[in-house]
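Narrative summary of target 7.
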Amino acid sequence: MFSVSVKSYAKVNLSLNISGVQGGYHAIDSVVANIDLYDTVRARARKDRLVNVYMRGRGSEQIPPEQNHAVRAGEAFVAAFGTFGADIEIDKDIPIGAGLGGSSADAAGVLNALAKLYKVEDREALKALADGLGSDTGYMLGGGFARLSGRGTRVQPLASPRRYDMLLFLPASPVSTAACYRRYDAAPDPLRADSARLASALQAGDFAGVAANVYNALQRPACELNPEVAAALAAAASFSPAAHAVTGSGSAVFALFESEELCRWAHSRWKGKMCARVVHTLVPGERRRGLPNPFVLVQEEPDAEKRRKDGREKS
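Modeled conformation, tokenized:
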């Protein structure tokens, strides 16, 4: 049997505005970036149409299959493209409930892995499939720097001439995204980030302009729901970074530094019990060429090609 292995990366929200509700979903305006924290997705072809997903790490073993976006992604792929199924293994390093897009990364990783496994090259169809699975899953298919709008399915890719170094604080307990949005709806934040200015600063390599526009409308409700988030923000602020904020609906907090050296200095001085990791964004110069997804590294077994002829189900 043949297989592929995919790295599916986490994201941080450099800005996150909420502009209302559309069709039962919150409309957002957010500038996002991938960071070098990832889950590994491995897919092996089956001879039937079943999709089996095995999770390891970060407590993912306890996720019920009916609530697992990776399972939904695999089943949706098989139904949409008429392929055989797959046995899928996911090794998680992205914390659950941290606002880092771990669930969406897993779903996107499954779609990217199966697309490579079964030679599906229709990226528009994959994007449409991903959008039906989760608000930012379509973005996670390609990753990089981007501005998301609507319910997160409208993706405007952004170029950046530089990378950004961060110290990521990871509270032990998660934040419920649904509860965070409900708390926000009860008391909306009148402040807003200038995502357009942040996007322009990113593309110009203007570090000060990026830092000046870091903002998250869900930060206050995340702190109210989980005191560890407030503690993480205080820890980040103690090192006087250029900017710091919650990502997504929490619980993770990032501190943005002007250089990797400053970031590693802060990490070396951190003596608290909360986990902290040095991470950086992924920039165009780090992409692999010749892959449908520039942020996904794919490996096949050497004899995969000769077996692929049996990979697609005959109708």
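The chain is about 30% helix and 30% strand.
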